[in-house]
Write a structure and sequence with these properties.
Belongs to the ABC-4 integral membrane protein family. The protein has 399 residues and is an alpha+beta fold. 54% of the residues lie in helices and 16% in strands. It contains 13 helices and ten strands.
């Protein structure tokens, strides 16, 4: 009970001091507010990027095996996956199609390219695939239809557009249906518009039969990757091993990679764990600066209130009382600034989530409150001790 009463009196005293100089109180807390805001937002953005990549892979289905050239990691394809190494062709597609327990085999020609309509031109992605991509990725149309196996055989100049690229090229995405778009020298009729998926590559892609790319777009008739869809998760490792065995007949081991989606996600999680630590360290610099600001202000406050300290000591206040008084003010300033920073960060995250999957987590909240409190204690000790060590007689005579 005694401790509760003492804490209550300390908080009331601190509140009274803050009310006397509201501007200085706000400016003192501002450094901590900015620091906490920086740390929480950096963590949220890091989680957002991680969520975005995970969503991209999940859109491909859980039981997916990806055959890619080289190491399989780069920045030129969907979700940052890559090229460099083997150049896959239709023979490779036919060979891997003989693997038992396969449901889908999708050759993928992929590149960033300018896509034009009669009135606009936008940078998007061209995906040359077969009809099996649509069930593999669970693609559904807003309007129109998906082209099929016959179109692949006829090298049909038809396209299914992602929702975003259709919206960019026409007044409404639905207006693209039946219109003609151009990709370099290739003219394509739009037969369907895909529902918005949230995956940047799919939403900004023109998906066409891979055979239609043969010619000026893809003279070598090669593929960036081959997706293998497996009906059951338990069959994934067997399919992966069989694909490696088949491809080793044509390529060296370091010229291609056969990767499960779970392996890629595991690597992504490890990378983002390190990135988040770096982001926290960068944001913590702002917190440190805010802490130094609080220490400077509290030192100035001790000087201004020297006579007050002397009077309190003369009336019986102990060194401990003075120490706790100034330390409480420092901690309250830090926690107040931390809470404001946390609320601002939460508001920004709610707004940004409309366009990008940023997220707050328990770590960010605990870090914000815990670190701001710790900074208040650490940087408040020095000025508080200075106030407590003042001689009562000298403090009363101070002018």
């Amino acid at each position: 009970m005694k401790i509760t009463t003492e804490i209550s009196l300390l908080l009331k005293s601190a509140w009274g001091d803050f009310r006397r100089d509201k501007v200085r109180t706000a400016l003192t807390s501002l450094g901590i507010t900015i620091g906490v805001l920086s740390v929480v937002l950096l963590i949220a953005l890091g989680l957002g990027l991680k969520n975005y990549i995970e969503q991209t892979f999940e859109s491909l289905g859980a039981n997916l095996v990806m055959v890619m050239p080289g190491s399989g990691i780069s920045s030129n394809g969907p979700a940052g996956m890559v090229g460099g190494g083997a150049e896959f062709d239709e023979k490779d597609v036919r060979d891997v199609r003989n693997i038992p327990n396969l449901k889908y085999v999708v050759p993928v020609y992929f590149r960033s390219i300018a896509i034009s309509s009669a009135d606009a031109e936008k940078i998007g992605y061209l995906m040359g695939v077969n009809e099996e991509l649509f069930p593999l990725m669970d693609v559904k149309t807003v309007t129109g239809e998906l082209w099929g196996k016959t179109d692949v055989g006829k090298k049909a100049k038809v396209a299914v557009l992602g929702y975003t690229i259709a919206d960019d090229l026409f007044e409404r995405p639905e207006d693209a249906l039946g219109k003609t778009i151009r990709v370099e020298s290739l003219r394509l009729k739009v037969v369907g518009i895909v529902e918005k998926t949230g995956d940047r590559e799919t939403d900004r892609s023109a998906m066409i039969p891979y055979t239609a790319t043969f010619g000026s777009l893809n003279p070598k008739k090669t593929f960036w990757a081959v997706y293998l869809g497996v009906p059951d998760e338990e069959m994934v490792s067997g399919v992966k091993g069989e694909a490696e065995r088949i491809l080793l007949k044509r390529y060296d081991k370091d010229e291609f990679s056969v990767t499960e989606q779970s392996e890629i996600l595991k690597t992504v999680n490890q990378i983002f764990g390190i990135i988040n630590l770096i982001l926290i360290a960068i944001g913590s610099i702002s917190l440190l600066v805010g802490g130094v600001g609080i220490m400077n202000i509290m030192y100035a406050t001790v000087t201004e209130r020297t006579r007050e300290v002397g009077i309190r000591r003369a009336l019986g206040a102990t060194k401990r009382d003075i120490l706790l008084q100034f330390l409480t003010e420092s901690v309250v300033l830090s926690v107040f600034g931390g809470l404001i920073g946390l609320l601002l960060a939460a508001l920004i995250v709610v707004i940004v989530r409309i366009w990008f999957p940023v997220a707050l987590n328990l770590l960010a909240v605990v870090l914000a409150i815990g670190v701001s409190s710790a900074i208040g204690i650490f940087f408040g000790v020095f000025p508080a001790k200075k106030a407590a060590d003042l001689s009562p007689m000298e403090a009363i005579r101070y002018e």
